[in-house]
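Troubleshooting entry. The earlier prediction with erythose-4-phosphate gave an output that would not parse, so I re-checked the input for stray whitespace and re-submitted. Clean input:
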Amino acid sequence: MKFFIDTANIKQIKEANDLGVLDGVTTNPSLMAKEGIKGKNNIHNHYKSICEIVDGDVSAEVISTDYKGIIKEGEELAALHPRIVVKVPIIKEGIKAIKYFSNKGIKTNCTLVFSPGQALLAAKAGATYVSPFIGRIDDIASDGVKLIEQIVEIYNFYGFNTQVLAASIRHTMHIIQCVEAGADVATCPLDAIMGLLNHPLTDIGLEKFLSDYNKLNKV
Ligand code: E4P
């Protein structure tokens, strides 16, 4: 089970990386915009900075929607750093591009996935990762975790190598549910990762241990 952080914020990426359990980063154009990163050069430099911090896959999303544009943009992104994964939307031109990248040995993350059929196409095209957006499914009163279960079952049954990357995770419980559903990766906001640490009995137990120690060992 791999942990990715879902942000383009350098401070948060460093904080998650310092924990020692971070396996990668996912970004998207909205997350880049949130950090005020604009212009091709700045965007490329930002991806390079992220790659220098984290020793794992870093998803960089294309903004083209036509085949030639996706290929050109994806090849430029892949050339930035060996750990860049080209993130491509699940559209007709995107699937064709994922097949092209797969044949060339360029890693891909097929994004904006909301159904088992889309995940099947991504795997058939040879995507490295498929990103089902579970939070956005929950937002429309449907079941995002159920989609993870369905995709995991399909991939296991047919032996696809594409890794299921649970995305659009909104809170800590989502992470646990995705682990139970068999996701290969969860990409999470920093506070959802940190939430895994929390338990009131840990706080109570630690306080008692320290107070018992301090009773006999005056500091
Ligand atoms: C991941 O790859 C996506 O960019 C991200 O998880 C989307 O999350 P959101 O639905 O919170 O925007």
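This one parsed fine. Residues 134 and 208 are 39 Å apart (CA to CA).
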